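Support request from a user on the community tier.

User writes: "When I paste my structure tokens into the form, the page sometimes reloads and wipes my input. The last time it worked, I copied everything first. Here is what I submitted, just in case something in the input itself triggers the reload:"
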């Protein structure tokens, strides 16, 4: 069964001398249950073959299923203008996946490969993750003879606007990775002392992303999902 972890991110104003300093002060993970995805081995092999056939581009595809169990894999076309470093599923495949809803299954997972990087969501993956209830499956071919498949939920947990976003942009060394994508990855090992607006983000793993220089900032939580291969 697929569970979820709840993060609460609060942005408050705490007085400091005469200034009110907004602080992203509470990111607490309250574990509900471990997320799992049951994946038939034949579909894993199909994804691996698709990833290898598309190399050195990223391959992508959509998986249907229900109750945490995958029942079908639809290889898709990667129509991104920069297919070596990201992916965009073609419209026809997305339309087919929409029809799964009528057939009593759902878009249970979205697959893509990383030809030369680890099986971990990139900043662009997080910025373009618009399916919070689907598992993002990433197959790394970094070591061609030892492909690695991992799964994650990429979920928006908070949005910071206006003054709050300004404070974050002031304190956090955001990186621009595309003309319209800025972001920052925080992993649990980062020393938060140097980032006053992220004071007690204990043990959380997330991206902060935005797509306009003065637009809102989204906090995308990265939650690993266990992949259980089945015959
Ligand atoms: Zn990716």
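"...and here is what came back when it finally went through:"
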């Amino acid at each position: 069964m697929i569970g979820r972890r709840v993060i609460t991110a609060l942005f408050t104003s705490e007085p400091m001398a005469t200034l009110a300093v907004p602080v992203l002060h509470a990111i607490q993970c309250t574990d509900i249950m471990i997320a799992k995805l049951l994946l038939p081995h034949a579909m894993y092999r199909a994804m691996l073959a698709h990833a290898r056939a598309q190399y050195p581009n990223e391959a992508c595809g959509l998986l249907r299923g229900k109750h945490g169990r995958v029942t079908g894999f639809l290889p898709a076309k990667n129509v991104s203008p920069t297919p070596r470093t990201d992916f965009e599923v073609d419209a026809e495949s997305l339309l087919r996946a929409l029809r799964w809803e009528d057939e009593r299954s759902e878009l249970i997972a979205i697959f893509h490969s990383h030809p030369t990087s680890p099986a971990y969501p990139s900043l662009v993956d997080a910025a373009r993750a618009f399916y919070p209830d689907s598992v993002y499956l990433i197959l790394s071919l970094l070591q061609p003879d030892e492909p690695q498949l991992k799964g994650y939920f990429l979920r928006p947990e908070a949005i910071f606007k206006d003054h709050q976003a300004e404070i974050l942009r002031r304190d956090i060394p955001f990186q621009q990775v595309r003309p319209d994508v800025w972001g920052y990855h925080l992993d649990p090992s980062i020393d938060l002392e140097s980032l006053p607006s992220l004071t007690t983000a204990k043990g959380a793993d997330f991206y902060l992303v935005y797509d306009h220089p003065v637009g809102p900032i989204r906090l995308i939580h990265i939650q690993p999902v266990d992949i259980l291969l089945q015959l």
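Agent notes: The reload is a front-end session timeout and is unrelated to the input. The chain has a mean pLDDT of 85. Residues 6-32+156-223 form one domain. Escalated to web team.
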